[in-house]
Amino acid sequence: MHDLADRDPPDLQGGAVMDESPLTSLTASSDPLTPPVPLTPLTPAALEILLLEWWPVSEDEYAAAYRYQEFLYCMKELTKTFEERHKELIAEIRSVGLTSAEFLLEIPTDDVVNTDLLQDELPDVYDELVFIRPSDAKRFIGLKSLYAISVETAGRDRVAKVERVNLQDLKKVLPANEAARYVKKEPHESLAKVVRVTE
After folding, report:
1. E strand or H helix that includes residue 38
2. Is the domain of 155 the same as that of 168?
3. In this structure, which long-range contacts are made by residues 122-127, counting pairs with CB atoms below 8 Å and at least 24 apart in sequence?
4. Backbone angles phi, psi at 47, to 5 degrees
5. Would the N or C end of the chain have less CB density within 10 A of its end CB?
6. Largest separation between any pair of C-alpha atoms in the chain
């Protein structure tokens, strides 16, 4: 496990970190309520070190897995918050036309086909290459029609290997107690988690 597992949280009295840490380069604030400002560049590794100093990971595998679940939950929620704040700030910069001597607003671009020009100048090439996304096909003709086209095109034997029945659709056509007979529990390996015995 991580070598910071058994360390106590750093002493921030006086606005400076007192233990031996890669993040000890901090500028102290004259305001005791203002946290010290790290001089270390903000990186995932730096945040991990700081996080593990305050919330150490146990040597016990179960407890460690539980701790990482807590980290993941917090990061997921913080990601939502930070993305929303970032989106609001970018929108404000663009709408007001704010400028900065230190920063520039950069909008990345992707290379995409100019379909209007291609269709106009090279219609044969356009007709050969044009397609629609599966999500659009589903919206236009529905899953049942897509299924029928797949069976007609690829054959039932191939399609049968990936056939599915939506649980909500089953519940719409059968009474709840009858539908339950045709429902089974299937492990969701990617969602495996550790829970406390008392939970």
Report:
1. strand 37-38
2. yes
3. none
4. -65, -35
5. C
6. 75
